[in-house]
């Protein structure tokens, strides 16, 4: 009996000592000078954001250069695929090897990817290089948010996440116009080559400044051992890659559909079994997906689906149908980036100063963000459906009022349509940024501290899943629709050869076709863009239902013991 009591007492003392050490490390992390740490983190995030916006703006031109316009979606989805699959691994990796080591790994992949992209000589090489970039870029974003959680309190996190989104938004803001200028002046290879020395600088700053102490991280000598690293859920990540890759191939390639379907289902089943039964330390902690975190996870997926479907649709529409130059397209993207940065700051300020429980305030802002998505898509769809396609060579300056355009609400040469178009982009980005900041803050008061890195990695997984499926779905639906419509029209005109050229090089559209033929083809392209709105509009309606359910459930259970952190 005395032996049992002695063991219990020893266990209590150990637990007490661990608790004291955890609190000591927590206070140490809070006392660290935030400036140098945040600078090293946010510089990497800045490069990642400017890189993604540049690619959204230049992908049509790059695909034309490689004579592979019908495969332009792979420029985007190759990056997003690896970004999605590897992001949650970084949360676990940082818990096993430390924040600094995980950050160095992420930067290394991003650096190698940018270097290989600059050296690419085909669309396949370009896509593979972008996939390597994605393996690192996702980790940089996730680790930035994870590390901010280590050095900030719950209420401070909303503010600093707002600052982080301003940095990210500034990169996005500059990516469009800077990328367009560099593309027009030096070519796309220069855009990726100049990122290499900048990433090396990020690595140096991160190595010097990110010195976080955490009780659950093994001693330095044990961190890189196989015994420690095998705890990473490699099986879950590989089966997740297989599942997402299969879905993308089914949607956007002409490969063997039955075989792809079987492989996709098998990968999905293996992933589910691995996460439910086989893996000891899962890539996705299933037990935490019940309740409000599960609902916010769904909303993050839908919101990212909507946002990035729009992000990658807008430049292609402006350049193809309205004949807007690369540099001017970047000007349109500026407003979207400004909205994201401003919304992040505003949301962070509200969460910092609210007198409501943090849970209630966060879920209110999440619901408002989803409502803004639906409003934005409705406005964008209406504007495009009543906007005349531009048949001139200089859409930026030439007035195109003519008799054929009298039945449109907006003529291409007028300024008025640009106001509505920019408003739609602005509202969409505002809602998305507000939802992200609110969701990240909600993690702090719903998840235990020792699991927050893993769950933050999962948050970025949900965001990436929504991003990759949204971008690929919208672009694939557009490409499929436009191929069908344009083929039927050109085949009826006896122009099958012209169709083969046009489908691989969209610059052929304005260089070869004139008059009524060009007008008819532009209408077909416009109709295909409108069809690509259907999945995002559907997603916004579903998200509205889920968001209101989340908010109403909080109204029924208003007490949140952690809501006043």
UniProtKB/TrEMBL annotation:
GO terms of molecular function: basic amino acid transmembrane transporter activity
Statement: the UniProt record of this protein carries the keyword rRNA-binding: no
One GO CC term on file: fungal-type vacuole membrane
Membrane-topology annotation of the record: Multi-pass membrane protein
Chief location bin: membrane
Domain Major facilitator superfamily (MFS) profile: 37-557
Pfam families linked to this entry: MFS_1
Transmembrane segments: 102-120, 126-148, 160-180, 186-207, 232-253, 259-277, 289-309, 329-351, 363-384, 419-447, 459-478, 530-552
Entry's localization field: Membrane
Keyword tags: Membrane, Transmembrane, Transmembrane helix
Family designation: Belongs to the major facilitator superfamily.
Stated name of the protein: Vacuolar basic amino acid transporter 1
Originating species: Kluyveromyces marxianus (strain DMKU3-1042 / BCC 29191 / NBRC 104275)
